[in-house]
Specification:
The structure is a single chain. The chain has about 120 residues and is α+β, with helices and mostly antiparallel strands. The chain has one domain: Ribosomal Protein L22, Chain A (Alpha-Beta Complex), CATH 3.90.470.10. The chain contains four helices and three strands, in the order βαααββα. A three-stranded antiparallel beta sheet has the order 1-3-2.
Length: about 120
């Protein structure tokens, strides 16, 4: 069973968020949150919130236990870019691109993770 949580319009660029995803992907949520909290990157804050949101969805809505969850995938997508202008020399204006992103965290139960591990990719059955 897959559990999903999504955060939209995060005011951090997707590039910065993608740098911290390997710290959390493939681990239990508790361990992923601990690893992200140890990082000095500011991009970890919205990622931690989204992981906690996915765990809360699983526990409260689907009555699953937190210890049986694993992070299957974390998708970082680009959101809209806000275009602003900044004054420059000689009365000119230069563009400022304020980028946003969307975060999608997908959790799965450990039983499903074990079943998928036995499959060979690229072969037909």
């Amino acid at each position: 069973m897959e559990i999903m949580a999504k955060s939209s319009y995060i005011r951090t660029s997707a590039r910065k968020l993608r740098l911290v995803v390997p710290l959390a992907k493939g681990f239990p949520p508790e361990r992923a949150i601990t690893a992200l909290e140890q990082s000095a990157k500011r991009a970890t804050i919205p990622l931690i919130k989204t992981i906690k949101q996915a765990v809360a969805n699983a526990v409260n809505n689907l009555k699953l236990e937190e210890k049986n969850l694993m992070i299957k995938n974390i998708l970082i997508e680009e959101g809209p870019t806000y275009k602003r202008w900044r004054p420059a020399a000689r009365g000119r204006a230069v563009p400022r691109l304020k980028r946003t992103s969307h975060i999608r965290v997908i959790l799965e139960t450990k039983e499903e993770a074990g079943k998928e591990g036995g499959k060979k990719s690229g072969t037909k059955s």
